[in-house]
Every structure is written in C-alpha cells, then in structure tokens.
Specification:
Strands 1, 2, 3, 4, 11 and 12 form a 6-stranded mixed sheet that branches. This protein is of the alpha/beta class. It is built from 18 helices and 12 strands.
Amino acid sequence: MQRSRWIGAGALASALILTSCTSGPAGVDAKQNSKAPLELWTRTTPGGPGEKGAQELAAAFEKATGFKVEVTAIFDDFETKLQQRAAQKKLPDIVMNDATQIGTMHSQGLLREIDMGKIKDSAQIIGQGLQSGKSLDGKQYGLPISAQASALLIRKDWREKLKLEPPRTWDEFAAMAAAFTTQDPDGDGKNNTAGLAAPLSTKRGYASWYFSNFLWAAGGDFITETGKGKYKPAMTTPASVQAMQWFRDLGCKTKAIQPGAVTMDTPPTNETFEAGKAGMYVVGPYLLPRFDKSLGADKYEVVPMPKGPKDATVLAEGSSVYLMAGSDNRAGQDAFASFAVSVEGQKKGMEGTTGYTVQIPVNTNVDIAQIRTDPRWKTYAQVYQDSGRYAPSIPNWTPVRQVTADAVNALMADCGLDINAKLRELDKQLADILKEQGIAAS
C-alpha cells in the first residue's frame, strides 16, 4: 500500500480498448528472439533503494542465466505509461508491481498466463502468495516475489512503565490503547499521547486498508465470494458491524486514536508514532529501518496482532512478477520469473547491498533468520505465514477499497452517524460495483 498508485474506473475503461493489441494472439505470434534484452519495469522511486535492489537482482539473474535485463524504475504515472506502451504495442517484457494490481492488469489484457511447468521452484512458493497471483478464472498471471503483513508496533518503554503485557485479545488491546491515552506514558505531565496511530484518510483508500486488519480478525469482510468467481457485499453482516462498532469506539468513546486521524494518510501517521504521540501502530516491516533511526530500536517492539472475535487475520501485501503479453523473449521471461522465486533469487533480493526487493521471502525453503538476524523480521514472516490474507483478485479492487474507505472515514469522523444505516448504504454501493465488474452473485 505504501507504494501503490491506482487506476480509476475511467482509466480502466479506456485501457480495455487496448486489449486487442496485447492479449491472446499478440502474445502467441510475436517472433521470438531468446537473445533480445528483457525490459523490466519496477514500480519504485527512480534512484532510490528499490531501483538499486532491482538492479542487483537483475545482475544476479544475468550472471546465473546469461539473459540481459534493462531495469527502469517508475513511480509517478506508472499505469498511464503502461497504457501508452500498450497503445504502441510495445509493452515491457516484465513488470514488478503490487500484488493488488493483478485484477486490473489482467482485465486490461496486458498479461500472459504463466506456465507453472517452467517455474523451477513453483512448489516451494507459499500458498497464499501463489494464490494472490491467480485471476478469477484460476489461471496464474502473477508470481509473488516479496511479501509483507501487518504486525503491531508498541512503545515498549511506555508499556513497561505502565506495567502492561503485550495484548493478546481485543479487550487487552483496547485497555492498552486507553492506558497510553490517559496515563501519561511518556511522563511529561501532559495529556498529549494517544493509544493508536491510524491513517484513516480517504486518500487512496487508506481508511479501508488499515481497517481490514480489524475487520477480518472479527470474521467480517468487505465482499464475500459465493462461488465460481461471484461476490456479494458483506459490510452489513453481524461480524462486520461488530468490527466497525469496536473500532469506532476506540476513536469516539475511548478517544484513543490520534487527533486528526481522519485526515491523515501514512506519512503524517508515521510521524505521529515516531514523534512519541501514539503508543501503538499496525503496520508492515518496511518502516523498521526508519523507526530504528528516528525513534530507536530499544524504544519499541514488534508483536503479532492480538486475536479478534474470530482470529488474528491481518492484511498481506507484496510485489509480484508479471510477464507481459507480446514479448519477443518468452524464454527470458520464464527464466526471470523462475529465478525471482528461487532460493537464490529470494536470498539475493533480501541481501541487496544498496537496497532490497524482497521483504519477507515467499519461498518456503528460505529462512529469513539466516539472512536477517533481527528477530523482528522473523516475527513478521511468521505473522505472514500464519495470519496473512491478500485482497481478492477481482477485476478492479480499487473502487471497493475506495468506497469502503469513504464509509469508514465518515463513521470515524462523525460519531453521531448511524452505523447500520451507513453500512447498508455502503453495501448498496458495493453491489453496484460488483455488478459493474460482472462478478455480482445472482
């Protein structure tokens, strides 16, 4: 989520016009040249550690296989530039992009199916990671190369001062949030701390993104599959209502969420936690280096999320390798995908000297503790394996995330709104979105 940029419905509609030039026969009939350099696009900031990590991975692949790779890092207007290339019938050969983009890219016809028989270590890919690369028709269009999941960061010094134990249940979580809000855990004599840092802005669907960690742990859902790729709205189910009520109470009754949360995306929320204004934060492992430097590794700890009414399911995300349609070097595409998920590729992606492309490995034969000795990374890896859940690979997840973010944000911003009425309204919006995408249950 921290790196995603989404396409709106209008852009998707225009992109669908391009499918005839990139899908089906275009991918099959392209004249093949196994010596042609592979063009790899990676969604990351040019010149940053992500680009450097991709370059190191590409260099290792070249050394191992002999295939040449040209890496291009793009962050701003990634989808627009991809559409432009599709219109020119000249897509890059490989794209490293967010796992949540599979539905959009597949529905645009930009991807070719991955032949799993040509992926050497496919049997070693962790189950939920492999599932995240499948479209609604059950075919494999993406391979995970890096995973992440949400865990709970806690101000350890605050917790110890107040003589609290890490929360194991939602009741204990709420009690800690209240204590961090009211019992002056930083000892400055002022009422200036909050229990939980939460990005609840509607921008890019952040409120929904964050709330999913609580919704799923309660057994609720945004939408539920009814079978054969069909879905129905689920925000008015008892479990979803329970999750929304509990989370809202943290903000409206306990007042344990940081002031201004409904206007914040992740950058100001990150600053809230590292500035000592909030004592807990549910987030992925990518912020560990930053917080170690700004806050101090001894000041906070990483623990699994406490068990909710159902379990401790949390949001899983990550990056995937996509093989683009129309390539003139499909052998090179297959070789890169195979290398990226192999033990060698995963280790190289984790141990880059200037940046890394792999946060949590997706190959079950890679032990993160052997490469990163910091035990907090092992905690994240275990959370991903035990509790991580990806958003479903529907044709376009963006509008689902956005309308649910709008509703969550409204309920957190206005404590007087009727929850049941708002969630009924939301379910009607979700029903329209599912119908528009052709996946509504009858």
